[in-house]
Amino acid sequence: MAHPSPDHRPGRSPLSRSVPTGWLPRRRRAATARSVLAGEAAAEAARKTSQEAPPAEERAGEEPEFPVIGDVAAAAFFDLDNTVMQGAALFHFGRGLYKRHFFHKRDLLRFAWQQIYFRLAGSENPEHMQDVRNSALSIVQGHRVSELMTIGEEIYDEYMAERVWPGTRALAQAHLDAGQKVWLVTAAPVETATIIARRLGLTGALGTVAESVGGVYTGRLVGEPLHGPAKAEAVRALAAAEGLDLSRCAAYSDSANDIPMLSLVGHPHAINPDSRLRKHAREQGWRLRDYRTGRKAARIGIPAAAGVGALAGGAAAAVAVQRRRR
Q: For the chain, how are helix, strand and coil distributed in percent, rounded to 5?
């Protein structure tokens, strides 16, 4: 069977596609057709895999109760790396794959350097994230989606569970307690994002959708990595499908790269912000919270595993998007 083009233009024959790893474009730019495609695919995948079930920096003055209990037209969208979890999810995933002999020590050292840079810089660097994308795609190419999903469950327990920011987790729980849906929105593979969302008891995840044929990764993406403008497109597409009012929704992120997503909603929050986002948030009057010192990190329990997720949602998403665009 011939491999499809990564552009996936309308009119091409759709193939089953799923979800692994892809990262950032080299520069920030407005949403392109590929950004829109990536966003739509991520939104569809999130719906397929979803569960059915104030500090000193904040603005002064009295505010209405938030989140609003029973407002089903509202939802919350959380970035993952350095917002919900300390560091980059892909680095932790890479450690787990190295332990299982998926790649060599030199590759692990490269992942480690990327993680050190991420922690010191406090923000995402397009060139480093592009390296992560290329490395991850080459590592998983030829492996079965089901295999990576099962391994991802193990890696979460080994490396990720203890790195969740309790303060951010408490914010997500407040939305859940108010009866609202809560979604992760990340450039990480949708498999990894879905595992984390389910372990935290969240509704689901929007993540980078990668192509698979016959349940095997091809090393190509559907559209482009879910980053920057693509995240905003994913949130917009999901909100339309779910009947949400974005002016009543909330979004949380640490990175200025997510300003397009934060600007979509009526309640944007800067969490552990990088310098650019902190500056922008102050100028716009957005709420800021920083849990890196541990001052405001309320200790709460993390729900146990909800079981292995159905990765078929990613493939179904790609097919559904392509059918609509034909």
A: 45, 15, 40
